[in-house]
Design goal:
Elements: E1 2-3, E2 10-11, H1 31-44, E3 73-75, E4 78-80, H2 83-94, H3 101-107, H4 116-132, H5 136-152, H6 155-170, H7 179-190, H8 195-207, H9 214-223, H10 228-239, H11 243-255, H12 260-266, H13 275-282, H14 288-298
Antiparallel strand pairs: 1-2, 3-4
Length: 303
C-alpha cells in the first residue's frame, strides 16, 4: 500500500499512480517502509511534521476560507490531510466508478466533520455513490449515513444530505424499511428556522411520498417570506400533486426572477401532469438550459 503525498489516499493496488488524484507514486515508499523511515526520522530529528495539503475547492462561495488548514486526521484506511485536501479527494472519489464500498463508507466518516465544506462534499459524494450503487446492502448503508447526517451534521451537510437522500428515493431507492427514521429526520429539519434546513426537510418528506408535513408546507407557502422559504414549500407541495404549489412555481418561472431557474428544476419531479408541458414551454425561454436538464431528470423520476 502506498499513501499519496498529495491527497492522502491510501492506494492498495500495485499501480504507480494515485487512484484518486493521479500523482506519480514511483518514488513513494510502501506503507511498511514508510513507517520504518518515519521512526528513523523521529530518532534523528524529533518534532518533524509532514503535512500534505490538497487543492482547495469552494462550496458555492458561501463560506469564507479559514486562515489556516486543520491538522491531518486519520479516517480508517483513508487518511485525509488538511480539510482542503479532504474536499478535493472527496470530489475525485465521487467520480470513481469502481471504488470499493468499504472505501466509500470509510470516506463518509467525514459527514460528521465540523468543517462545512468537508461535510458538504461528503454528503454530495454519498448521493452520487448511492444513485450508482448496485449492491443493495451497500446502498442501504450509504442511505443510513445520509439520514444520520441530515439529523446531526453541520447545517450545510444536513441540508445536502436530506436532498441527496430524497433524490435517491425519487430515482428508485426503496426507503420503505427506513420510513420511521425518514419521518423523524424530516420533522427535525422542518422544525428549524433556517429556510434551507426546513426546506430540505420538506423536500425529503415529499420525495419519500409522505404527507406528514403538508399542512406546515401550506403555511409556509401562504405566510412565509417570499424567496427560498416559499420556493421549497412549493417544490415539495408540487411533488405531492398540490396545484397551489405547482402554480406558484409556474409564476416564478414566468416571472424570470432570481429563483426562476430553481423553480424550473422543481418541475422535474412535480407530480402535476402538466409539469412536463410547462418544461417544454420553458425550452423557448431564458431558462432553456435548466429546462433541458429538468426534462432529462423527469424521464428518470419514479412516479
Amino acid at each position: 500500500m502506498k499513501k499519496c503525498p498529495s491527497c492522502g489516499y491510501v492506494n492498495r493496488g500495485p499501480g504507480e499512480k494515485c487512484g484518486i488524484c493521479g500523482r506519480d507514486l514511483a518514488g513513494v515508499p510502501a506503507a511498511a517502509e514508510a513507517e520504518q523511515r518515519r521512526r528513523s526520522a523521529s530518532d534523528l530529528a524529533p518534532g518533524l511534521i509532514l503535512l500534505a495539503c490538497g487543492a482547495f475547492v469552494l462550496y458555492r462561495g458561501l463560506h469564507r476560507r479559514p486562515a489556516a488548514p486543520a491538522p491531518a486526521e486519520p479516517r480508517g484506511d483513508i487518511v485525509f490531510s488538511a480539510y482542503g485536501g479532504a474536499v478535493y479527494s472527496l470530489g475525485k472519489m465521487s467520480g470513481q466508478r469502481f471504488l470499493p464500498a468499504a472505501d466509500k463508507l470509510d470516506a463518509l466518516r467525514l459527514l460528521s466533520s465540523d468543517k462545512e465544506k468537508v461535510a458538504y462534499a461528503a454528503a454530495s459524494a454519498a448521493g452520487t455513490w448511492l444513485r450508482a450503487e448496485k449492491d443493495p446492502a451497500a446502498a442501504r448503508a450509504i442511505f443510513v449515513k445520509l439520514l444520520d447526517a441530515a439529523a446531526s451534521a453541520v447545517p450545510a451537510a444536513r441540508s445536502q444530505a436530506a436532498i441527496e437522500a430524497g433524490m435517491a428515493v425519487l430515482l428508485g431507492f426503496d426507503a420503505a424499511p427506513f420510513e420511521g427514521r425518514v419521518r423523524e429526520v424530516c420533522r427535525g429539519l422542518a422544525s428549524e428556522t433556517d429556510p434551507r434546513l426546513r426546506g430540505s426537510g420538506f423536500l425529503l418528506s415529499a420525495m419519500s411520498g409522505s404527507g406528514d408535513l403538508r399542512r406546515k408546507m401550506e403555511e409556509v407557502l401562504d405566510l412565509g417570506p417570499a424567496g427560498e422559504d416559499r420556493l421549497y414549500a412549493a417544490c415539495a407541495l408540487s411533488r405531492l400533486g398540490d396545484r397551489k404549489g405547482y402554480n406558484y412555481l409556474i409564476r416564478l418561472v414566468s416571472g424570470g426572477g432570481d429563483l426562476s431557474a430553481e423553480a424550473v428544476s422543481c418541475l422535474a419531479y412535480s407530480s402535476v401532469p402538466e409539469a412536463g408541458t410547462a418544461l417544454k414551454e420553458a425550452l423557448k425561454g431564458p431558462q432553456a438550459e435548466s429546462a433541458r436538464s429538468a426534462l432529462a431528470l423527469r424521464s428518470l423520476v419514479r412516479p
